[in-house]
Amino acid sequence: MVQKGPRPLVLCGPSGSGKSTLLKRLLKEFPDKFGFSVSHTTRNPRPGEKDGIHYHFTTKSDMIAAIEKGEFIESATFSGNMYGTSKKAVDDVRRTGKICVLDIDIEGVKQVKHTDLDPLLVFIMPPSIEELERRLRDRNTESEETLRKRLDTALREMEFGNQPNNFHIVIMNDNVEKAYSDLREFIAQNTQQEEQESAGGDKNEKEN
Fold first, then answer.
1. SS3 for 80?
2. For the chain: N or C, fewer Cβ within 10 A?
3. Distances (CA, A) of 201 to 7, 14, 62, 194
4. Could you tell me the CATH number of the domain that includes residue 89?
5. Which pTM value belongs to this model?
6. Residue 141 Cα distances to 131, 135, 150, 157, angstroms
7. SS3 of 56, please?
8. Which domain holds residue 143?
9. Strand (E) or helix (H) holding 99
């Protein structure tokens, strides 16, 4: 059972969709309202990455054992490395009263839907696959082979994002200011509704 607290927020979208930019802005503007769940990974730390801040770095055997014990909400494997969100990582944020933000892929979204988290599900959609390719090429971090793989994955993700009922909202990121405004408005509407329902529940409990 996951610790009760504010309804978590899931952000999903292809690499290059601008999801990380929107997430950073959200956490910077509302540091007291949102907290980021720190994922686990079996890959080695990159320069500047710190354990417990950027990721919880672990071994494949330890992570497999923890998944088998039911300690993870979602997990996936990329390029031979495992990634996942533990129940404890989400609990740690929710205990502070903050909205826990999860940055996960479509496989993670499918798994989260089978938990009792009941998160707000947001998909960040790039304007087109051509624009996504341009953004990824501008990074100069990909070989042709890895770029093709990312684009193939992105096409599958965009198809999943466009299917009805997979997400509560799909935000087109062809303009970062507009996309961020849409994200803020969606969160505000849903968190206000949740706060009102919570207040109503507290009132009813007192009256009873």
1. coil
2. C
3. 15, 38, 41, 10
4. 3.40.50.300
5. 0.85
6. 16, 11, 12, 21
7. strand
8. 9-198
9. strand 99-103
Q: Which residues are catalytic?
A: 46, 139, 150
Q: Is residue 99 part of a domain?
A: yes
- Sheet containing 169-172: order of strands: 34-36, 99-103, 9-12, 120-125, 169-172
Structure tokens belonging to residue 71: 């300690």
Token pair belonging to 41 = 């990974």
The answer to whether residue 2 is domain-embedded is no
The total number of residues shown for the chain amounts to 208
Residue reference for tokens 């997430």: 23
Residue 205 lies in a domain: no
How many domains is the chain built from? 1
CA neighbor of 40 nearest in space, from 92, 115, 106, 3: 92
